[in-house]
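SEVERITY: medium
COMPONENT: batch folding queue
REPORTER: lab tech (J.R.)

DESCRIPTION
The queue accepted two submissions in a row. Attaching both inputs and their returned structure tokens so the on-call engineer can compare them side by side.

ATTACHMENT 1
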Amino acid sequence: MAVNEGMKFLLEMINCHTFNWSINKKSYEKCVFLIIDKFAQLGFSTEIIETQSGPAIIGFKEGKKKKHLHFNGHYDVVPMIDNQTITSNNSLNSKAKVIYGRGSSDMKGGIVSIWLAMKELINNNKYPSLSFSFSPDEELGGNIGSKLLVEKVKTLLPVPDLIIIADSSYPYLLTGHRGALWLQVSCETKKNYRFNCSSKCSSAFMLACLISPLIEKEIKNYNIFDSFFGGNCTSSSSATNIVSQKFSFSIDIRFSDNKITKNIKNRLISSIKQAVSKFETDGYIISIKDKLFIPTCPDAEIPSFVFNTVKKFIPNCTYGIGKGYYDLRFFRNQFSCPSFILGPGTSEQAHTAEEFIIIKNITDCAKVYTALINNGC
């Protein structure tokens, strides 16, 4: 396997800052043309799909067998935190075990696994038809770019017999994902406002203190797994106890696959409105943005030979349900063939300050993909 070449490919992608299309268009385009060039060398024809979130990519290579395998992923990443560097401590010598950098785990490493598998088959004349699609906005929910991309896959490519999404899941084979409710509460006023509280409390934190008990009360009625709170001051004051003129507060709540209901969203928003009403004084404007990500059905029928092939190269692999929301939901809406998530990144490393990926994970997944292709799916 061309591991060193694959790791160089990964580093090149990591150094493309693909975390905000509106301000990083050149980096997105650089990454897209890099991916196109690498797969073109393997005989793939490609097409760029323009979306409002950036360019998406579709690639296809006709095979000698009637079957068709489709691989999916995304090349966008979450923004860096504070003064994070894009890469750190990277070494491509023979002793290197990990690659650091934003997007290494989620999920540019997965793109490399796909590429390594395709490269292994370059001299194989008995492979099935192969295709791939890479989205520019999975990290934003995929409702613009990923959704359009999957619709294009359906219209431009033959119907796939198997769909593999190389997103962060190692060592699990994910057959579905939980739902999520994402909310952003924003407050704005024309003047600063003094509160009687510790100077260490940001306005977003104070709002969190009001909302948190109400949220906790509500989620006891549901099978909710995780909730995340984050604050962001967009304009602040150094004076003690002065609330910034603009601030926002985000909430990310994950719920189980058997609780698909908009009632979760309606009740939680009602609770938040009750909390923020205490802030609606002195010209404060409160706004709430929300998105509800419906979970995918976890009961997809995965052929036994697929799981047996995965276990051969990843012995500790088990079936699982993803904590987050993936582009899998778009494929499930468009295709009836088996589809699942199996990629070299891990959820523990995704989006972290010192994000990295284990090189062995990349090669393990590449071996799985290669074996599935050789078996004709």
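ATTACHMENT 2
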Amino acid sequence: MDATNSFLDKGVESKTNIIPASESDVSSEWFHDITGIPILLPNTFEVLPNANSEVGNLSKMVRVGFMDEEDFRHCFMIKLLPVSTTDSTQELRSIVTSENMNGREVFFYASLKVDLERLVPELGQYFVQCYKAVKDDSGNSLLILQDLTPDGFLMPSFSDGLSDHHFTLSLDFITKFHFAGELLQEEHGGTPLPQVYPALNSWHVVPKEPSSSSLFNQFKSLSWFPEGLQFVANHVLGNSPAMSQDFLRLIPHAEKIIRFIAAAGSKFPTVIHDDLWPHNFLYRGFGDGLKVIDWQLLGYTDPCYDLASFILASSPIQDINRTRVTNVLQTYYKLKEGFHSQRNLGIERSWRDFESFFDSIGLGYGLVWFAMSADSIHANPNYRPKLYRIFEFLWEASIPQFLLEKVC
């Protein structure tokens, strides 16, 4: 069993590493045994299931809380594998396990987070406090994290996008995070980080053998991308036949497109979050409090892939336009230049190359990302106008045509 405790100087030890199958197995005794945290008033211990409201389906969230003798309430979030109640959730649980998604998040809190904070200490303010991180030999995993709700942290709306202040705050985090990944690779003498941290092997690393078990092959075998394109054409763009046809033309070439985009990210790679949409940012009011959550899709590839999903998902619908995108890219690039300058480091990538890559392959990645997410996003009627605008913008930028030209 691979178990890592991070009780943050609490000086306590756990008595068990048993991972509960569901929230029904979460009790005050189990919580005390696995964390070592004393529960002096066990009758105050509460388990609140269904904490997944408005979040993704790659895990099961359970909120627990209890009072101490000084009448202070302690609150935690427990993150488990998704519960297998239907064929679709069973399939999802199988993917999460086989592709080590929750294990990758355990790795992040137990190891990578520590190394990134060491190189860029300011990153620490953006990460959630982790009290326990466990992964067993069967692929089951467990995280016990700080519950941010009592501290006033709230999740923004996908439909509304981020305010200017929150967008700027998030972009500052993303830039520092990517820069820390570059520093980490430099510290290892330029060795690709998946060779140092095997958990970073994700779908961005194209498998050498066709039979390799990788998320790349899961995308292929489960037809997530072509099915997503079909959904976009039928439901998102159904009233726009010209756009629908251009996206449908990609379906026969879906595997080649994924392989092309995965391989293209290898020239200037860094650590990426790979799921930077509004529901993975938590903000405290209108101030500077920001926490970034859900590290299951953590990867290693071109930073433009993070930026594409972030800009399109987090911008208000009226800001999804060419001028706004260019301004955001310029801000990111200038911030990155500043961080390099502070360390007396040169920046390898020119602005022209960076912008050109984003405007083509980066947005191509955005197309893949949103096509595979389209059905779940479209399920909320409030999200549909923005989802339509995202695909309209990608069409205006000629991304379907660009991808066809590259793989045909």
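NOTES FROM REPORTER
Residues 2-146 form one domain.
No errors were logged for either attachment.
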